[in-house]
Amino acid sequence: MSNIAYIPGDGIGEEVTRQGIKVLEYLDNAYNLGLKFEKFDLGAERYLKTGDILPDDVLNKLETFDSIYLGAVGDPRVEPGILEKGILLKLRFYFDQYVNLRPIKLYKEEFSPLKGKGIKDIDFTVVRENTEGIYAGIGGFLKKDTPDEVATQEMISTRKGVDRVIKYAFEYAQEFGREPKLTVCDKSNVLTYAHNLWQRSFKEMGKNYPDVEQNHFLVDAITMKMVRNPEIFDVIVTCNIFGDIITDLGAEIQGGMGMAVSGNINPESISMFEPVHGSAPDIAGQNIANPLAAVLAAGMMLRELGHGNLTPKVEEAVKDALENNMVTSDQGGDLSTDEVGDYLVQNLKSKE
Amino acid sequence: MSNIAYIPGDGIGEEVTRQGIKVLEYLDNAYNLGLKFEKFDLGAERYLKTGDILPDDVLNKLETFDSIYLGAVGDPRVEPGILEKGILLKLRFYFDQYVNLRPIKLYKEEFSPLKGKGIKDIDFTVVRENTEGIYAGIGGFLKKDTPDEVATQEMISTRKGVDRVIKYAFEYAQEFGREPKLTVCDKSNVLTYAHNLWQRSFKEMGKNYPDVEQNHFLVDAITMKMVRNPEIFDVIVTCNIFGDIITDLGAEIQGGMGMAVSGNINPESISMFEPVHGSAPDIAGQNIANPLAAVLAAGMMLRELGHGNLTPKVEEAVKDALENNMVTSDQGGDLSTDEVGDYLVQNLKSKE
Ligand SMILES: CC(C)[C@H](C(=O)O)[C@@H](O)C(=O)O
Ligand SMILES: CC(C)[C@H](C(=O)O)[C@@H](O)C(=O)O
């Protein structure tokens, strides 16, 4: 039995996650998973009507669930940042989802902007620290709005916070790396406090994983390698802000936001899964949005709910959709959002 | 009259900057520039022999020069970071070189790792703040080396520091942009103190430049755009750490470190110019290192010394070298480092 809180959110969030739910419901039936869904309306509509972003009673209710499945938040009528911070970041911090898991996987060679790189070359995972670093929200202003103004923003790393995400990354590399190999990405040559801690944590934790190959890249160098030699990576672990940057770069080399998935994971508690793309208000409600990332997010959630055997099945179905051009127009097909979802279910069914 | 302090540094630094000096000496003769060079030996050799990295008497002496021309620092016998911080960062901060100017310019289509992007598409400049932000070096440890350890690293932005680099960027966009267009890159949706200051500075400064098109990208989004649509950029202004990251990504899309140039500029005082590549100890002393970035750095220095008319001439000579394959083996040619320098001088001569 798993209770899934389902937050479609804004714009295309509703229609793309509907396809994810479709796939989940099919698998639930076929494999007796005992999934239950409950929908929560959070997002721009609610905020504009009531002023509520994420009220306490909703937070308390969410605590009783096993997992959260999120569509997208953001609306042109709301100042950028408000909903992202008030819902997305809030949930990450509140549920202490200390791992942001971002697979960088190219499904179709022509999607990548990189010359000569195929699906074998672009297939790694970024494990981003998701609850501290410069996302702590700590800082301030001195003499604001004067020529002498000083603004500070604190990057805070705790040994506990860094240790646990590095441990997760090592274990992920052991279980899911093509080869067991973990790269730590930091700027330890300049961030001599916060990233010195990262260095020490990585080295010490690494002693427990002698079977995992271990190496280090500075963040500036890693962006170069990601576009020149992405094939050298298996699992990368990094801090919150660098993770933010390199996972978006990664999303682009894997073919853009249409395929990028994000798991906000607390292995001991409630995790949250979402497509990386935004709410795309310009195409919302037209049944033309690409649902593949939302479906892959649902697939990733299954692993966290203890059905890891089904995650690759979902990925295979998505791969088939791409190969058979059963996709939306942004990916070169002519199906509607709903039709893509239907195809995926049929595809899964046909393989039983 | 211009006095140039010349710091070849480590590894290939000596042989590549020798070609830059060759080109400068030729132009000096041809155009009566009155350039004088004095060599300073800083780097690993000196550090290993004497323990000195950048002694005060050298710093004082450097103050009497008009410009600094640097090769590369770094040596496998010295712990990474020591020389970079002790020489490179030290000079940037000491001389308050608040602009790091990094042209991202593709000279030859096949050098880029990006599909379908030609030399017209990859041609923009990053103006990186170079003296503050998270490079301030401020932070500390609490309960170091215990499980309860906390490490902090402070990002500090001052209104004065941000205003001046944004002003520089606007003026650079006016003078050198393909069209006058300036993009600010930050993470203002999360760094609600430090990058809120950036936002306000950009908006207010922008009022003085109504002829310059102005837009904004979050740092995560900009890395995506840089690999998918680099043609949309003309001049980008950003903070120290994001500048570090996106300029290296930029170096890669323009064909790798072999062509990347960095100007550390204090418009009112002493600036420093360097190729971005490292000291490459493995190929040092063999006369095979690619000198083009070092030569381009010399060309960029000429502009700062008041000979901006000569900078494009140097760039043209480099372009000719590439077109005629008068380059080193890493770029597909078979010339030695020295021969490339000689070719560039001949090429410049032939155009008088
Ligand atoms: C929306 C924003 C606050 C968020 C972040 O910076 O973490 C997003 O970019 C992401 O990567 O999920
Ligand atoms: C060597 C290092 C300290 C330096 C930096 O981070 O600024 C380098 O990466 C650069 O971009 O010039």
From TrEMBL, chains A, B:
Keywords for this protein: Amino-acid biosynthesis, Branched-chain amino acid biosynthesis, Leucine biosynthesis, Magnesium, Manganese, Metal-binding, NAD, Oxidoreductase
A GO molecular-function annotation: NAD binding
Pfam family, one: Iso_dh
Domain named Isopropylmalate dehydrogenase-like: residues: 3-344
GO process terms (BP): L-leucine biosynthetic process
InterPro entries: ICDH/IPMDH, IsoCit/isopropylmalate_DH_CS, IsoPropMal-DH-like_dom
Entry's EC annotation: 1.1.1.85
Keyword Iron attached: no
Keyword Repressor: no
Parts forming coiled coils: none
Requisite cofactors: Mg(2+); Mn(2+)
Stored SUPFAM superfamilies: Isocitrate/Isopropylmalate dehydrogenase-like (SSF53659)
Oligomer status and interactors: Homodimer.
Record family assignment: Belongs to the isocitrate and isopropylmalate dehydrogenases family. LeuB type 1 subfamily.
Protein name per its UniProtKB record: 3-isopropylmalate dehydrogenase
